[in-house]
């Protein structure tokens, strides 16, 4: 009897602790679906149409400039010729954040990085926080200026080619 009750309490307690976390992941997964529409489920992209995020997003968001770039692309969009792993793209990515809060964007980004870079993130990679997204998204840029920011990022980070 006693064990049963303890199990019940334990289950209840784990339920209480788990729910907010799981709800957060579910939400992030739902929001990430908008990226999947173009960049595909594993972020592998479509050569010539949608660039891959796989094995890149974590690396790209591992410096102050890179984090600024990624947040700006989400808030302000990206347009213009870019080369990713030797393949050219000259597409348009519309801003994606629409009705999302900074907290939701930070969760979406953390989810995205863990999803597309599950084979490994740089050791010192830090998750995005709501505060950071709030701060970085004060500058949204526009699709063209974000393309220029990308050039600057690639000059600083040669391993992003
Ligand atoms: C409508 C299609 C579309 C959707 C939806 C979309 N993207 Fe993109 N994304 C693109 C295209 C196209 C480019 C390249 C733009 C260019 O050619 O200049 C791009 C570029 C990027 C880049 C820059 C890559 C680089 O190498 O510089 C990042 C980062 C990115 N997307 C992340 C995301 C994330 C995260 C989401 C979801 C929140 C998302 N995208 C949703 C089409 C899309």
What does this molecule look like?
The protein has 161 residues and is mainly alpha-helical. It has one domain: Cytochrome Bc1 Complex, Chain D, domain 2, CATH 1.10.760.10. It is 57% helix and 6% strand. The protein has 6 helices and 4 strands; from the N terminus they run αααββββααα. It has helices spanning 2-39, 57-60, 64-76, 102-116, 130-136, 143-156, and strands spanning 78-79, 82-84, 87-89, 92-93. It has a two-stranded antiparallel sheet with strand order 1-4. It has a two-stranded antiparallel ribbon with strand order 2-3. Helix 1 (2-39) crosses helix 4 (102-116), helix 3 (64-76) packs antiparallel against helix 6 and helix 4 crosses helix 5 (130-136). The N and C termini lie far apart (63 Å). The protein binds heme C (HEC). Heme C is lined by residues 34-35, 37-39, 50-51, 53, 70, 73-74, 78-80, 82, 84, 89-93, 96, 112, 150.
């Amino acid at each position: 009897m006693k064990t049963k009750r303890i199990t019940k309490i334990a289950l209840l307690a784990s339920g209480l602790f788990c729910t907010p976390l799981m709800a957060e992941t579910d939400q992030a997964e739902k929001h990430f679906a908008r990226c999947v529409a173009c960049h595909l489920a594993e972020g592998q992209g479509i050569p010539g149409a949608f660039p891959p995020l796989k094995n890149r997003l974590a690396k790209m968001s591992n410096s102050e400039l890179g984090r600024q770039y990624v947040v700006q692309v989400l808030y302000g969009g990206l347009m213009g010729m870019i080369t990713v792993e030797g393949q050219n793209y000259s597409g348009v990515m519309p801003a994606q954040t629409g009705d999302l809060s900074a907290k939701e964007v930070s969760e979406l980004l953390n989810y995205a990085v863990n999803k597309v870079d599950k084979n490994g993130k740089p050791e010192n990679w830090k998750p995005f926080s709501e505060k950071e997204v709030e701060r970085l998204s004060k500058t949204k840029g526009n699709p063209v200026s974000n393309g220029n920011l990308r050039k600057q990022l690639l000059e600083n980070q040669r391993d992003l080619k």
